[in-house]
Design a protein that fits this description.
With 452 residues, the protein is of the alpha+beta class. The protein has 3 domains: 111 residues, Double Stranded RNA Binding Domain; 96 residues, Tyrosine recombinase, N-terminal domain (DNA polymerase, domain 1, Orthogonal Bundle); 215 residues, Orthogonal Bundle (hpI Integrase, Chain A), CATH 1.10.443. It has 19 helices and 7 strands. A 4-stranded antiparallel β-sheet has the order 1-2-3-4. A 3-stranded antiparallel β-sheet has the order 5-6-7.
Amino acid sequence: MPTRQLPPVPDSCLGDTSPTLGGNSPLPHQMEENMPKILKNELNPRTVATLSKAGKYNDGGGLILRIDQQGNKVWIQRVILDGRETMRGLGSYPAVSLADARRASAELKERIKTGTPPEPDVMTFAVAAEQFLEGWTRQFKSPKHALDWEKSLRSHAFPAIGDKPIDEITTGEVLAVLTPIWYTVPVMATRVRQRIEKVFDWAILHNYREKANPAGKHILTALPKRRPTEHHKALPYAEVPNALRTIELSTSLPLTRLAFRFMVLTAVRSGEARLADWAEIDWEQRTWTIPAERMKMGREHRVPLSDQALDTLRDAARVVHIHRRKQREDADAGNSTDAGLIFHTSTGGEITSAAFSHMVQRLGLDAVPHGFRSSFRSWCAEHSVLREVAEASLSHLLGDNPAETAYLRTDLLEQRRAVMQAWADFCTTRPPGGYKEMSEEPEENALRLAAD
């Protein structure tokens, strides 16, 4: 007989956290006794061994088995201490079996009932991180982003400081986490430091640590200095129309070509274009809203869509849905409401950044994908686009003047709309000297260019 998989227990179903008896303030043990009755022994050894889906599984009486995204299992007990609900760790499975967890649960509740203070609960960095992420990840719309947070801490921080009491961890121990990856994976190292810092901030706020944050920005002075940042290789803006034409006539996959075109026309970053979702497109308002969790600056970004950008989306819809008449009609009308990736591989997966890079290299374009943002910025400077509008189009903060940043509360959408239409017109207009021949399959493409 197959093992019954129990659904995770929502936090809202864990019972009232502040019961009362009449008009008097109850004692802690009275509060525990008057908590909502939950059937006990909901779990069994076989179920505990086979459960794998992340979530909380109730055994009754406040005993819960929590499974994280990596499949790690830990026992926690919900109790009332000093008039407020708290969670006490009882150990990890399988080191602590179901029977052991039930005994520990009963002992803990008996101590509370008789007024005997329970043993102090040592807050380790790993436990603090888990509790912090429980609340913090609710801000993420993307489960993938939340999982990335957890994986980065589990891979880089937990092996060194995960089991250490959070009030005893020093800056030197955090340095030991960051130094090995500071040069090899600099972007990830920066994110890990910021995430460790947030966990310590949470611990300080909840009185689990009295000392200063050991992962604060001051730690940067002790880390090895990195080489100066190399600017992304970019084309002169005058060469962008030919580059787009070169990509359009290449043998790369249709959705890869369209994704690259969409990236250039909207002046966004590679990942923002490659992971664009149909649900983010407002056809009526001609606007693409990129959620904060996919933006480098962590702020939602509205992109005004030019005629050419909308045509690119319709072309993508036709590629995907050409075999389905109704969806093809929706795409022709510009009314696609599908959810899911706009640009994807033949198997439905994400187009990788490497796919963009390899396409550019193969076609002999002297630039990297991100460099087209620089080309756009140069075009803005040469065409008298206001600095504020140009920077807003790139989703940059105006950081030179803090007061200016504080008081500028608009994203200049309508001003940017005119700029993005002018940029798209420039990118898709035949240059005065004509298009250059592309490096891939030159003979075939020379004939195609001549036919234009």
